[in-house]
Amino acid sequence: MRKKTIYDIPDLAGKKVFLTVDFNISLHDGKIANDTRIVEALPTIKYLLKKKAKIILASHLGRPHGVDLALSLKPVARRVGELLKCKVNLIDHFWDKKVVEKISKLKNDELTLLENIRFFPGEEENDRDFAKHLSTMADFFVNDAFGTAHRVHASIVGIAEFLPSFAGLLMDKEVKMISDAMEKPKRPFLLIIGGAKTPEKISVIERLLDIADTVALGGAIANTFLAAWGFGMGRSLVDYEMVEMARVVFWKTTRKHSALILPLDVVISDRDIKLRPKVVPYNKVPHNVVIYDIGPKTQKHYSELIKEAKTIIWNGPMGLYEDPRFTKGTDTILKSIAESKAHTIVGGGDTLTSIKQQKYLAKISHVSSGGSAMLSFLEKGTLPGIEVLLNAK
Ligand code: ADP
Ligand code: 3PG
Ligand code: MG
């Protein structure tokens, strides 16, 4: 089944659109550190404005418990206004029945942005009455929030029951780019996974062993897999509860034609990083040290795999990239991916934060706006926020 996009909405002039977006950007001292997620939603907003629709934007920011002014969308409203050169009305108490009337009186060329949608508990509970209340604000529901499409919340899933529902342009692009890579990947298909969220990522690895030719691991997740082989990891970050699961994944690998590749060498130091970083082979990690990055042999090996691959998906830094002494592994992977002619997809909160240079970003076929959403989509091939669009009236 095909989901409908905003291009399928017959007549938008004068109509009201409830547009859910993922404006969950990072704030540093109350200022927006990176506005990529806002910029990515602009094509949908611009299209709707061009068609003379009236837009009511909804997004969450962070994980508030009730109203928390530190997580207000005020800076976001300002930035959206600057980018689109229009007035943005930030509406608080959006759960109040009276605001619906207030919103309908706002001018057409002004944007309406609801205050952080998670300020009201009904959002995360996917409360039916709250979803219905949101739906009374508009004639259509459009979801452009790929980054939150894995959440079963009122402004993502519940509202679709009450309004004709459509995908925004970013949502459509994300789904297309990632599904294409998964359904008919050019081979060899290489998946590179790093980072620290082992429980969340291990099921993605297990699932993608069915599709990818090679899965290469780095970062803390690789430690857990090396520990599963019985190698001492010293005081490195290992998710011991996941070791058994890692063994199951190894067992699965032997039954497929795919390869699960682990680091050949690693960069170590002590817990406080006082000792000068040193490279050791994966099987010679002393008991009192911590692994902070992949070593040069591994970097070279992974770069060769990247060179040979025709489809590459990468999520998760190769080491503690926040410390400049341990960025080499992550930087090398990024540079190799940017130089590759393959179809390349990169996503993940920290993964994108680790990319400081725009020149590399520009060379990647698709940079996903989703972190956990991208991983969940890779694993399951769909997300709750996409399902409701597929089943929409
Ligand atoms: P993403 O957000 O891109 O999905 P994760 O959140 O899973 O990535 O992981 C990123 C975090 O993992 C970073 O804070 C990074 O410092 C940490 N990390 C990666 N490798 C190691 C390691 N060897 N030891 C400790 N932390 C690591
Ligand atoms: C993200 O940053 O991954 C999305 O905005 C979802 O945020 P959440 O994990 O708080 O639901
Ligand atoms: Mg992260």
Write up this protein:
The protein is an alpha/beta fold. It has helices at 36-50, 74-84, 98-105, 128-135, 169-183, 198-208, 219-228, 243-254, 296-308, 328-339, 349-353, 358-361, 372-380, 384-390; strands spanning 16-20, 27-28, 31-32, 54-58, 88-91, 111-114, 140-143, 165-167, 189-193, 214-217, 259-261, 265-269, 278-281, 290-294, 311-315, 343-346, 366-367. The chain folds into two domains: 6-171, 3-Layer(aba) Sandwich (Rossmann fold); 185-378, Phosphoglycerate kinase, N-terminal domain (Rossmann fold), CATH 3.40.50.1260. It is 36% helix and 17% strand. The strands form four sheets. Strands 5-6-4-1-7-8 form a six-stranded parallel beta sheet, with helices on both faces. The protein has a six-stranded parallel beta sheet with strand order 11-10-9-15-16-17, sandwiched between helices. A three-stranded antiparallel beta sheet has the order 13-12-14. Bound molecules: adenosine-5'-diphosphate, 3-phosphoglyceric acid and magnesium ion. Adenosine-5'-diphosphate (ADP) is lined by residues 194-197, 219-220, 237, 291-292, 315-317, 319-322, 348-351, 371.
